[in-house]
Write a structure and sequence with these properties.
496 residues, mainly alpha, two-stranded antiparallel ribbon, 20 helices, 2 strands, 73% helix, globular
């Protein structure tokens, strides 16, 4: 195993392979930074170029795009409150608050550090645990996926500010948005009100961009903040060694967790980032600062979502099962090269999977250098006059939304959800909780109904097995956490 991985590293470290990997990382960062151009879209755009290419070059390049895109989504999330990918939505909560305090450079550094280290942890887990983790992932049935999604929903109190009840209402609104469209089980229309386009359901990108980016633009316009003059040029700031050391245990833990979530077919980076954020807030001391610009709130989701690409290779390589759109495209890359994924790959062509693992390792190192070179130019973007920057954000948001469907429908959705997000903020509700409910809604409903069909209406199946009980315990803890945390903090203040 280690000998094959070592040979893969030697091959991946050749100048030609590094060039392909670097190109993939840069292309992925660009794709991840543009809303609507996700990792899967960026990979699919490069897929035609792989015809006739040596798989020793084409597969690492496609994998590097995946790695770069997961990091790229955090750049606009931190700088302009516009998540480039769904997985970067959790990064907005603390990343953008740091940017508002003039610490955008530090937030980007933390994001890069957490992403690279979390990715490296995931690659190590991939090398040593591919077959055992693949077998573990197969134990997840609909009931386990249901409780995992419920565990994610239980963190609404962690992202809803001072009023958990308004967070619950916001999440319920997100769940409602998730069921709009055609029922996948019965093919009946739900809450479409005769609008044909709504039968397809709501796309994630317009909802995400509207609730986060455009609502912030509206807030700045109506508050007059858009006309404020930036007196001092924003300086590049870096985290201290103490700060990096402080977030390292969080990064390692979330990297390992992201690997496991990535190995679960259908879970993905978005769920991993929210779980990473919520569990970190739940178990960290002095968690009152989360949501106000805490570097831990940037490190946790970024480590988790950047660990998913390597984790996603586990079911693909070991079982031949693509767990996401991105790994499905990578599987097409394997097919174009005449290689079949699955258990026999490790017997017939062991150099291929271990070579790809080594390329993922090298891609993380390349990401570190590319990310460091991009830090200063990215930070200086925020020094532009706000009236120009907000205009650019609006254009950016509309282009990203338009690219999802290539028509004006998505642009209208962005405007609608921008206004909804603005009103929610003014009334003290939590757009982040709405996004969380929307993202997890399909997973909750689909697996609830599948489980009920399997058990013929019996609820006992939801409470059977150790995995179910583990997720139930975490869900209950997540629901109670805001109230426990508030009580502990009030006691500390009283004692002081």
């Amino acid at each position: 195993m280690l000998a094959l991985f070592g040979q893969g590293l030697m091959q991946a470290a050749t100048p030609l392979n590094i060039m392909y990997i670097a190109f993939g990382v840069i292309w992925g960062i660009i794709g991840g930074a543009i809303p609507g151009i996700s990792a899967s879209v960026a990979m699919s755009l490069l897929l035609p170029l792989t015809f006739g290419m040596d798989p020793a070059h084409s597969l690492p390049m496609l994998a590097a795009v995946y790695v770069g895109a997961e990091y790229g989504g955090s750049i606009p999330a931190i700088l302009i409150k516009t998540p480039g990918t769904g997985a970067a939505a959790a990064t907005v909560l603390d990343g953008y608050e740091m940017q508002r305090k003039g610490l955008g450079g530090k937030a980007l550094c933390i994001s890069l550090y957490a992403g690279v280290l979390g990715g490296l942890v995931s690659v190590v887990i991939l090398v040593f645990s591919t077959l055992p983790l693949a077998r573990f992932a197969l134990k997840f049935g609909p009931s386990q996926y249901f409780w995992m999604a419920m565990m994610g929903l239980s963190i609404v109190g962690a992202v809803s500010g001072k009023d958990p009840m308004k967070g619950i209402i916001s999440a319920a609104f997100g769940l409602f948005l998730a069921i709009i469209g055609m029922d996948k089980f019965t093919s009946t229309q739900r809450f479409t009100f005769g609008v044909f386009r709504l039968s397809e359901g709501l796309d994630l990108i317009p909802v995400l961009v509207g609730l986060f980016a455009l609502s912030e633009v509206f807030r700045q316009i109506f508050s007059g903040e858009i006309f404020n003059v930036i007196k001092d040029r924003i300086k590049m700031t870096y985290p201290s060694k103490k700060e990096l050391a402080g977030v390292t245990p969080i990064v390692l833990a979330c990297g390992a967790m992201g690997s496991v979530v990535g190995a679960l077919p259908g879970a993905g980076a978005t769920i991993a980032s929210w779980i990473g954020y919520s569990e970190t807030k739940m178990f960290c001391k002095n968690n009152e600062t989360f949501g106000t610009g805490d570097i831990r709130g940037v490190a946790a989701p970024e480590s988790a979502n950047n660990a998913v690409p390597a984790g996603g290779l586990i079911p693909l390589l070991a079982l031949g099962i693509p767990g996401s759109n991105s790994t499905a495209i990578l599987m097409v890359g394997f097919s174009l090269a005449g290689i079949s994924c699955g258990p026999m790959l490790f017997i017939n062509q062991p150099a291929v999977p271990y070579g790809l693992m080594a390329s993922m390792f090298v891609a993380q190192i390349v990401l570190l250098f590319v990310g460091l070179m991009m830090l200063r130019p990215c930070v200086y973007i925020t020094s532009i006059k706000k009236i120009y920057l907000t205009s650019a954000i609006m254009l950016f948001a509309f282009i990203g939304a338009f690219s999802t469907t290539n028509d004006i429908y998505s642009v209208i959705l962005v405007l609608v959800f921008g206004l909804i997000g603005f009103v929610m903020k003014e009334l003290g509700f939590a757009p982040a909780a709405t996004v969380l409910g929307f993202v997890l809604g399909e997973l909750v409903e689909g697996n609830l109904r599948r489980t009920m069909q399997m058990s013929r209406g019996s609820m006992d199946i939801f409470f059977a097995g150790g995995l179910n009980k583990f997720f139930i315990a975490l869900t209950v803890l997540g629901v109670l956490f805001p109230y426990i945390s508030k009580r502990i903090s009030s006691r500390r203040k009283a004692a002081a």
